[in-house]
Amino acid sequence: MGQTITEKILDDHLVEGELTPGEEIGIEIDQVLTQDTTGTMVWLQFEALDLDEVQTELAAQYCDHQTYQFDFKNTDDHRFLRSAAGTYGAYFSRPGNGICHQVHKENFAAPGKTLLGSDSHTPTPGGLGELAIGAGGLDIAVAMGGGPYYVEMPEVVNVHLDGELPEWATAKDVALHLLGELTVKGGVGKIFEYTGPGAEKLSIPERTTITNLGTELGATSSIFATDEKTKDWLARQDREEEYVDLQPDDDAEYAETIEVDLGELEPLVAAPSMPDNVAPVSEFEGTDVEQVIVGSCTNGAYEDILPSAKMLEGREVSKGTEMIVAPGSKQASEMLAREGWTAEMMAAGVNFSEATCGACIGIGHVPASDSVSLRTFNRNFEGRSGIEDDSVFLCSPEVATAAAITGEIVDPRDLADDLGDLEAPGLEMGTKYGPGMGESDSDIISPDEAIDDGLVKGPNIGDVPLKDGIDVDGGEALLKMEDNITTDHIIPATADILKFRSNIEKLSEFTLSRVDETFSQRALDADGGVLVAGENYGQGSSREHAALCPMYLGIEAVFAQSFARIHKANLFNFGIVPLAIDAETYEQIDQGDDLEIVDDVPAGVSSGQEEFTVSVNDGEWEFTADLDASERERDILSAGGKLSWVKQQHAD
Ligand code: F3S
Questions:
Q1: Is residue 360 in contact with ligand 1, taking CB distance under 6 Å?
Q2: Which domain holds residue 478?
Q3: CA of 360 to the centre of ligand 1 (A)
Q4: Of all protein residues, whose CA lies closest to atom 2 belonging to ligand 1?
Q5: Is the N or C terminus of the chain more exposed, i.e. has fewer CB atoms within 10 Å?
Q6: Ligand 1 mean position to 297 CA, how many Å?
Q7: Are 302 and 320 in a shared domain?
Q8: What's the pLDDT tens digit per position in 301-327?
């Protein structure tokens, strides 16, 4: 039987298991990436493994999420990351050089390779034919130590793109269309493989916008076939020799095929406050807009920003609207500057940001209260912008710029009709510059150029908490939560909180504070307990602090109707038992109930037991909770978490 692109790459990297959907497989990882908010823990965990150097072909440390310095803590973290990269043989991308996904795409991503990254949008370089997966930081540390990455073999879904995007519809609208159709849970356990004549017409930045947003579908990864466009793009980055032809076999079998006619698409937005709350722009026409931001890892490439620049040529940003451009990389910034577009945009009233995540996680450019912000980002979860009652719409650079010009949400097709001389910027952008694209490689320090030999830790960098074995018997339901609790709810990623990312004792004070401000103190007072949640618990990012901090507070188990993939893996990794309950049980449990697991959990975990009986309030009633875990995940739980497990293995 023929193979899909995904199966071909996995086959090449398979070290354990078979490519049967739902079965756990172990794969060899070629490249890893980590960023500044997850990276400090990654390197502290790598240090705990007692290895001399990184074992993968390539490892890269980016400083992108928090590049604005508020006090010494963040600067100390960046210095520690540089010292760790230098000491263990990783590339180090300096603060301000850009967002990990953009910079990795430009410098290192290659067709046919596997990439594991401690950021949920790691699948972005799938647009170049790299099989890239987001994971928890501990998985990254283990992969850097040469260990395989374990994942349930996903179903491979073919997204067959036909036709051609009409004027003013963009790659962002392809992704938003899929989100509207499939929802934020539609990709769970799946890899989306984009093929067809429509896919061939898309440029590499357009493809990577789509693969980036695949994460919002909950997908394990997203990938495109490679072609002349891939080769040409790699050549522009002076990396043509890394091109590999990757196509599905003619008789490849997909679990499902989704047909999209690009010609039918129109400008879309994701309305507040979920990426799948998708509607045509025209539904919101006339809504006042106080802020517009173009950039991020989704639409931060040079070719994403150029349409905005062209639309603003000879025009001005509306007086009541602030427009910010935050390029995804210094390469994009540099090219815009070299070609004069930065000056044009500044003259039009645009405020330029350094190449950083920043506003995407509420660090800088927080919207005014009770105002609308249009952003070209990938997430608009409530409160993520830094203010609780935010109203963030996601859209393409074209829709964002149209709003900046008029001060209100407007369908760019209507604006073009009104203005008469506004042309759709078009698909093929950025073809006039030559190979190399920019000189900003100077902001990447290669392992050969490393200036550190030894870890440099400031006072805010603590130790990694380690658990030895499991001692789980249930406890008080300290918090009952609804569906779709995100990792932002569990550990908010705002600047005032993130600065404690290397100090778990302090960071844990903020655990679930967005749901209940008293939670962490109650957990400490009760000496731990359990959590209860609805569907899709842990949706969002790969942030392992969202498992690490609850573990530190003594949370033994999470009872939820379902779990988001990466977060479930993180729960295993930190020795917290994820137990599935049905909707009826969820309804019956009250916060404050005492949930005692009747079975011997340590014995049950190691023997493969799948159902555990739970007694509520000393026998008032009982329910059954399911543990869906592979043998390896059970071993990890039994050891008290992955770090203890890997250390045990190294010791054996
Ligand atoms: Fe950064 Fe936001 Fe992307 S935090 S990695 S720009 S999703």
A1: yes
A2: 474-651
A3: 6
A4: 360
A5: C
A6: 5
A7: yes
A8: 999 999 999 999 999 999 999 999 999
How far is ligand 1, taken at its centre, from the CA of residue 585, in Å? Answer: 36
Q: Does 296 sit in the ligand 1 pocket, CB within 6 Å?
A: yes
Q: Is the C-beta atom of 63 inside 6 A of ligand 1?
A: no
Task: Determine contact, residues 299/398, Cβ cutoff 8 Å.
Answer: no
Q: List pLDDT tens digits, range 171-215.
A: 999 999 999 999 999 999 999 999 999 999 999 999 999 999 999
Residue 340's CATH number: 3.30.499.10
The answer to ipTM > 0.95 is yes
Question: Do residue 213 and residue 343 come from a single domain?
Answer: no
Residue 273: asked if its preceding bond is cis (omega within 30°), the reply is: yes
Q: What is the DSSP letter of 629?
A: -
Please state, as a whole number, how many other Cβ atoms lie within 10 Å of the Cβ of residue 283: 12
Q: In a mutational test of the pocket of ligand 1, which residue from 63, 376, 377, 487 has the highest number of ligand atoms less than 8 Å from its CB?
A: 377
Distance 2 CA to ligand 1 centre (A): 36
How many whole angstroms from 123 Cα to the centroid of ligand 1? 12
Number of domains in the chain: 3
- Decide if 81 is inside a domain: yes
- Structural domain contains residue 465: no
| pLDDT one-digit tens code per residue, 488-533 | 899 987 778 878 888 899 999 999 999 999 999 999 999 999 999 9
Among the listed residues 25, 27, 32, the one whose alpha carbon sits nearest the alpha carbon of residue 12: 27
With contact defined as beta carbons under 8 Å apart, do 161 and 260 qualify? yes
Q: How far apart are CA 641 and CA 238, in angstroms?
A: 42
